[in-house]
Design brief:
four-stranded parallel beta sheet, 11 helices, about 35% helix, about 300 residues
Length: about 300
């Protein structure tokens, strides 16, 4: 009868455990191989048999971020709106964010396409997936979730170190801006910030742009709107009693002529508080947050001071 009180001696030494053996079946990494199985920010499963070496980006802010990760040699296609950094000029264009050329993307044989739930159409993303092309779709709607998106994107393209450093820098910058606001966080001005004209459109609280304004001490007058991007009129906006009108140059390119056209439609106090702002500072996440949030904070600090 066998003795179960003592384990038999091993004739072979125990096999060494490697780091990826302690990671869930989501991500395996080592110097010579990589395998990824992860859900994107819409919950769709993304599987990559190896590190993505051929990447197409359909999102301007993520294109800039991928270049900041040091991936210029792995980016094989971008949209015509991907203009940062200047090195993107050498990358093939595959159409716009809303109307990408699916055939042109397929001909580039990408290992991975980077998309965004708001900037890109669902039908285009689904069509790419139907062709067997891996698509990682992001959907940040808060500053904090944009930081998380950076880290997820870093994992997908295997630039975790660069992504973590970028994320930490943004967190430090946001913390510094909030500290500098001080008492201004209690004296909050109301802002009308349209994103389109003819028809006029703005955004509600479930958007990244809203969270940026909130962090900078402004109350978005359309925060409680039922739609994420509600249509409105100037009269309706005036009725919500904004203290300022902030006109970004993205996605609609508001310019000085738009200010001149709008001022006569506003009551006298408000007509003197129409300000053009940088749309990228308000809407772009990723590496642009390192400089854009600070730039917008400085501008709006001057705007607040002018109201006193």
């Amino acid at each position: 009868m066998p003795n179960f009180r003592h384990k038999p001696l091993r004739k072979d030494p125990p096999k060494p455990r490697f780091p990826w053996q302690d990671v869930p079946a989501r991500l395996y990494n080592c110097a010579t191989m990589a395998w990824l199985q992860v859900a994107d920010e819409l919950g769709f499963k993304v599987e990559l048999p190896h590190r993505p070496e051929r990447i197409v980006s359909l999102v301007p802010s993520w294109t800039e971020t991928l270049f900041a990760f040091g991936l210029k040699d792995r980016i094989v296609g971008v949209t015509r709106f991907c203009v940062e950094p200047p090195e993107t000029a050498a990358v093939p264009r595959i159409g716009g964010t809303k109307n990408p050329d699916i055939n042109a993307i397929a001909q580039l044989t990408p290992d991975l396409v980077i998309a965004n739930a708001e900037e890109n159409r669902r039908e285009d993303i689904e069509l790419l997936r139907s062709r067997g092309i891996a698509v990682f779709t992001t959907y940040p709607r808060k500053i904090a979730s944009a930081v998380e998106s950076i880290m997820k994107l870093g994992s997908v393209v295997q630039c975790e170190l660069q992504a973590n450093m970028m994320a930490r820098g943004i967190v430090r910058e946001v913390s510094a801006i909030e500290t500098e606001l001080g008492a201004w966080t209690k004296l909050r001005f109301r802002a009308f910030c349209p994103i389109w004209k003819n028809p006029w459109m703005s955004f509600n609280a479930d958007t990244y742009a809203h969270d940026v304004l909130r962090m900078l001490g402004f109350n978005n007058i359309f925060a409680s709107a039922g739609e994420r991007y509600p249509r409105t009129t100037i009269d309706e906006a005036i009725g919500l009693r904004p203290d300022f009108v902030l006109l970004p140059d993205e996605p609609y390119e508001f310019r000085a002529k738009d200010v001149d056209e709008l001022k006569p439609q506003l009551p006298p106090p408000l007509s003197r508080r129409v300000v053009l702002i940088n749309g990228r500072d308000l809407h772009w996440y990723g590496v642009h947050m390192l400089t854009g949030l600070r730039s917008l904070a400085r501008l709006l600090a001057r705007v607040r001071a002018s109201a006193l």
